[in-house]
Amino acid sequence: MEVDLGQKIPVKMRASFRIQFILLVLVCLCGVYSTNVTIQSNPPTNGGFVQTEPEQTVSLTCAVENSVTVEELQWLRNGQAVSLNDGNRLNMSHVCVQPVTRDDNEVIFTCQLKSNAKVKASIQLDVRYPPTLGDNEEMQVEEKSDAVLSCDVRASPPVTVLWMKDDKLLDLSSSSYKTSNNGFTATLSISNVNPNVHEGVYDCKTNSSIYGVARKSFSVTVIDRVMKFPLGPAITGVVVIFFTILLAVIARWEKIMKCFKKD
C-alpha cells in the first residue's frame, strides 16, 4: 500500500492530533514539574524516623522541588508553628533541635508550603534513652504501717519491670503487695508491714531491649511502732487548766490576801 505524503490531512484529524498533543504535554508537565517539598536530616531518617539520644543535635533541612516560582516554607512542631528568621523561609529552610531532650521523643516536624499546606513532608523524632531509676534507698518503716517503693522507669523504648526481694522474684499473690506502672513511675505498695514478712532488700529491676538490665535497691528495716502523743489536744488541755486555775485565784484573791495580813 502506497501513502501519498502530499495528501492533505482532514481538518477533524488535525484537530484530534492537536488535542492529543496538548494532553500529552500537560501530562508530562504535571508528572515532571509538580511542586513538592522534601526533608533531609542529620542524622539521616529511617522510614520517616530520626533516631537520636538526649543531649545530641538533630538538623533538618526542607527544600522545594520542581517549582518555577519562589515558595515560602513553614515549619510545624506537633502542629504548632515554628518561628523562622526572614532569611530562612524561601525555597529552603533549616531547623535545628539542640540539645535533644527526652521530651522530644515522638515529636513530629512538618514542612509545608505557605501557599498550599497540602504540599508538605514530615519526620518524627525517635529519642532513645534508658530509665534513670534513681539512687538506692534505705527505709525505716514502722510495724503495721504502710510503705511505698518507687522508681523512675520512663524510657524509650519502654522497659519491662520486675520486683525482687532478697534476690528472688517477689511473690505478688500476697494481698499485702500491690504494684503499679504508668510508664513513668513504677511503685510497690506494702500494707500492714510485718517485720517477719516484709523486712529485707527489694529491687526494682528493669530490662531494656537496647540498654539491658538496670536496678534500684531498697533496704527496708521494720522498727517498733511509736505511740504518737496527740500534741494539739494536750496543748489545749494545758491552756484550759491554766486559765481555770487563774480564774479560781482571782475569785479567791481577797481571802488569799487576808491570810498574809498581820494581826
UniProtKB/TrEMBL annotation:
Ig-like domain boundaries: 44-124, 130-221
Output the Gene Ontology cellular-component terms.
cell-cell junction; plasma membrane
Q: Name one GO biological process term.
A: cell-cell adhesion
**A single Pfam family, by name?**
I-set
Top-rank taxon, per record: Eukaryota
**Membrane topology term:** Single-pass type I membrane protein
> What is this protein's name?
Ig-like domain-containing protein
What are the GO MF terms of this UniProt record?
Answer: cell adhesion molecule binding
Under the heading InterPro entries, the entry gives: Cell_adhesion_signaling, Ig-like_dom, Ig-like_dom_sf, Ig-like_fold, Ig_I-set, Ig_sub, Ig_sub2
Q: Which CDD domains match?
A: Ig
TM segments? Answer: 231-253
Q: Where does it localize?
A: Membrane
**Keyword set for this entry?**
Disulfide bond, Glycoprotein, Immunoglobulin domain, Membrane, Transmembrane, Transmembrane helix
